[in-house]
Amino acid sequence: MSEEFEPRILAYCCQWCSYAAADLAGSMRLQYPPNVRIIQVPCTGRVDLLYLLRALEDGADGVFLSGCLLDDCHYVNGNYKALKRVEKAKEMLEALGIEPERVEMFFNSSAMGPQFAQTCNDFTERIRQLGPLYPQPRQAAAGA
Ligand code: FES
Which residues form the F420-non-reducing hydrogenase iron-sulfur subunit D domain (predicted)? Predict the structure, then answer.
């Protein structure tokens, strides 16, 4: 598509594990793309299905959740609930003709700073390959 495309990505990270992993990645001076904007949440189980879809509707090209490792959620099963919502969001996107790969769920413990950085790199590259979600409005806006 275009080499210049820089995706906008929203990441909901639980405060107990993945947000700490993002902190650790920063402390370790690991590079990950500035495309990823992180929102800290108490638990991925608190992220409603609508938050995922609304992020895409409001201009994100991709959105992911990053929670505690399965069976390590501080609220017992929040990450399992989040995983189900991500799967539902994928189904809904597919029904709408939108690539379901634009939504994903990852699991990173607080000690997994390098893995978190890799998650950001890999997901950014995935979305870069998919291209912009709404190419026309952005190009029109840039030319206006
Ligand atoms: Fe981390 Fe639930 S507290 S996913």
Answer: 9-131
Instruction: Please report whether residue 71 resides in a domain.
Output: yes
Containing structural domain, residue 81: 9-130
The pLDDT tens digits of the residues spanning 113-130 come to 999 999 999 999 999 999
Give the integer Cα–Cα distance in Å for 79 and 70.
7
> Would residue 135 count as lying in a domain?
no
Output the CA 23–ligand 1 centroid distance in Å. Answer: 16
Instruction: Kindly report whether the global pTM for this prediction surpasses the value 0.85.
Output: yes
pLDDT tens digits for range 12-45: 999 999 999 999 999 999 989 999 999 999 999 9
Give, for ligand 1, the residue of 12, 13, 17 to mutate: max count of ligand atoms closer than 8 Å to Cβ: 17
Query: Which of 50, 57, 64 is CA-nearest to residue 125?
Result: 64
Q: Rounded to whole angstroms, how far apart are CA atoms 66 and 87? A: 14
